[in-house]
Amino acid sequence: LKMSWLYLPLHLLMATCLCHSIKSPTTSSQQSFKTDLSNFYHSLILADGKETTVHLLKDIPKRYYFALEEGRLLAPFSITVTPCDVPIEWSILAYKSPPGFPGKATPGDHNTQEVSKSQKAPSMVSTIFNYKGNSVETYMGMSSHSALYLLEFLSTERDTHITVYLTTDTTSGHLYPELPTDPRIDVIGIGHTTVTLTWKHSPSVLQHRENIQYCLLVNEKHNYKSLCAAETAIRSSGMKLPPTLALSLSPYLLEPQQVMILSNSELSIINKVSSGEVRQVCMGTRNTYTVPNLSPSTQYYFDVFIVNLLTNASAAYTGTFARTLEEPEPKVTELKDGKVIHVVLDGKKQKFYSLQYQARHKKIHFTFQLCQGQIRVHITRNGKTVASENLSGLRYLSLKGKMLDTYLVQLRSTEESNSSVKVQASPHFHKPLFPLLPESLKIKSFSKLRTCRSVTIAWLGTQEESKYCVYRKRIEEDQIWRELQSADRCSGPESRHKSEKVLCKYFYDLNLQRAVTTETIKGLQAGTFYLFDVYLFGPSGIPVRYHSKVVKTRKKC
């Protein structure tokens, strides 16, 4: 039976060593080899061609061994070790069979139990590689069929885990995607809230485009040397992260601290952690990317990983960092007596729009007409807050101070969609910009008075004679919500089509209890939705729009 001693079961190999060490004289080198070989009692076999996850306990070494297949004298092999947290120590030891070692046949000697005393055993144990750190390291070497290899791993800081990949097949491709010869990430643009990055393509993208993609990690702490190191850091912050960045970006795996964004074929996950946001973006095979929605004057760290979607294996580019530009001082627009300013606010940026007014009288009158969305106003006088509230409809604020007081009005949208408002500041005795308003700006419809061809509506008036204009618009049922949400309450009849105008009328009543008017709109179509608007015009000619009302005519009469 022909069998290399390397491929005897380990316990039989050890038993044979002990047995023959009794029966035959041993040199000091042989005795050393026998002692060193006892390390294999608590070792595991390292699988060839498979990535192995190894869990390490602090200060307790863990050992794996491997050997070549029988019949291969010399063959290349490589070992890649990826620390997933703290720095570790690891080494590769080669155990070679000494000449005349019990169990190994000598040419011309038919008695394997006899050992030539004249043979001098050479050194049989050697350390061929060792490393300490947290970088991904790969060792490449030539293996001999007469050598047994032991890998030893040690963590001296804390419990951790690593991944180990051994392969003796260097011809059929790589588990890990290849990095370009220059694996650096270049910063080609920096803004107040954006950073643009580019990197050289991986050779793996050109060969296996459909199975490869780039993933970017953005954080405010530091760079990561591997994808598993990044995932470990995020988990240690108290978050449960999907196991693989590239393959687990799906909504049902998200935690409450995570936000997923899908746009333009990019899948992003934003993790809310104590040290700031950790943002992950996978962008396919594009090698240029602009990171949006960053904070001004903040340093960010950027890591790019090339990920094999079939094997989950990844390789890390050399990380970089950049600091966004400082936010410019907010522009302050000056408010002049009686002049109306129309302000449009971007809800996505959530920034304040600032207006400044210097009082020339003790009493100041601020008027706000909310046109769209939801807005919060904050007013300070000489740096001290005098008013802060959410706006609704038309709002008057009268403030009393001293001459030459400086008022700062700050406006901010409270929703993600755009909002707009008209603002006026003037002395208290200034002619009012807006007309006198009724108690309510709602339009009422009477269900019992609805017919197939007409609708009756009513609205409140005031004690001041004013002009009211009624407009109608035919809409579809699926348009109702959009029409009501997007209505610009500051726009006047000039924005309406002439065919939508129904009538204009004047009325008032000194008795507010009787300041109500009704109007029956005829010539409508049966079973149809109509949007009705009423515009109130005051002395200044600036209209105030009542809240739109949708009414459906009867289908059958």
Automatic annotation (TrEMBL):
Cross-referenced InterPro entries: FN3_dom, FN3_sf, Ig-like_fold, NDNF, NDNF_C, NDNF_Fn(III)_1, NDNF_N
One of the record's GO molecular function terms: heparin binding
Xref: SUPFAM superfamilies: Fibronectin type III (SSF49265)
Subcellular location: Secreted
Signal peptide (residue range): 1-21
GO biological process: nervous system development
Keyword Transferase: no
UniProtKB keywords: Glycoprotein, Neurogenesis, Repeat, Secreted, Signal
Main location: secreted
One GO term describing the cellular component: extracellular region
Sequence ranges assigned to domain Fibronectin type-III in this UniProt record: 177-314, 435-543
Function: Secretory protein that plays a role in various cellular processes. Acts as a chemorepellent acting on gonadotropin-releasing hormone (GnRH) expressing neurons regulating their migration to the hypothalamus. Also promotes neuron migration, growth and survival as well as neurite outgrowth and is involved in the development of the olfactory system. May also act through the regulation of growth factors activity and downstream signaling. Also regulates extracellular matrix assembly and cell adhesiveness.
Protein name (record): Protein NDNF
Organism listed in the record: Gymnorhina tibicen (Australian magpie)
Lineage: Eukaryota, Metazoa, Chordata, Craniata, Vertebrata
Gene responsible for this protein: Ndnf_0
